[in-house]
Amino acid sequence: MSFRRPLLVRVSVTLLIVGLLASLIRIPSAATSQNITFTPVADSYVNASYLSTNYGTATTLQVDDSPYVYSYLRFNVSGLGGQAVTQAHLLIYANSASSNGLVAKPVQDNTWGETTITYSNAPAMGSTLATSSAVGSATWVTMDVTAYVTGDGTYSFGVSTAGSTAISLASRESGANAPQLIVSTSITI
User: Fold this and answer.
1) Positive or negative, the Cα torsion across 168, 172, 178, 179?
2) Up-side HSE of residue 162: CA atoms within 13 Å toward CB?
């Protein structure tokens, strides 16, 4: 009996030490990214030659610098679960080509309506967020808008071009080629 007691004490002390060490050792966590794709809840374009005309139900968006034609897109970003946004990309399908690219700008006023926005009542655009290179016909144009999309919320974009050749873009009504906002988050596991 006296022989078992020291062995039992040694085993107990050893288990206690192993338990303490295990609680002090931190297993590094791994990070993985998750991409969530959003389609616009509203989009339209406005044309300086037709101040009161609305194009909210059209299957295309337009941009031009002469006359001024701008497109507006609004996205509701949700479901990020408080995860940090690591990247956000605005993707727009170009129906036509241009040697000039697209320009994406933030629009702080989210109250514009898809079927009521016109050149006369369109909200102001902010400073340039992203630009693209030349636009090819029947291709997706990708612009990095990470600086603007910071988490769950409503985000409106204005899209324009510096070129005087009109560029036709697919609207949300076009179906498979509807614009997209792809938001990447980092998840710790």
Assistant:
1) positive
2) 10
Residue 128 to residue 149: CA distance in whole angstroms: 14
Q: How many CB atoms lie within 10 A of CB 172?
A: 21
Closest among 105, 102, 107 to 131, alpha carbons compared: 102
Rounded distance between C-alpha atoms, residue 142 and residue 149, angstroms? 15
Phi, psi at 185, each rounded to 5°: -125, 160
Other Cβ atoms less than 10 A from the Cβ of 183: the count is 27
CB 1 within 8 A of CB 8: no
pLDDT in tens, the chain (189 residues): 455 566 555 656 665 565 555 556 655 555 678 999 999 999 999 999 999 999 999 999 999 999 999 999 999 999 998 899 999 999 999 999 999 999 999 999 999 999 999 999 999 999 999 999 999 999 999 999 999 999 999 999 999 999 999 999 999 999 999 999 999 998 766
**Pairing of the two strands 85-94 and 68-77:** unpaired
Predicted TM-score (pTM) of this structure: 0.83
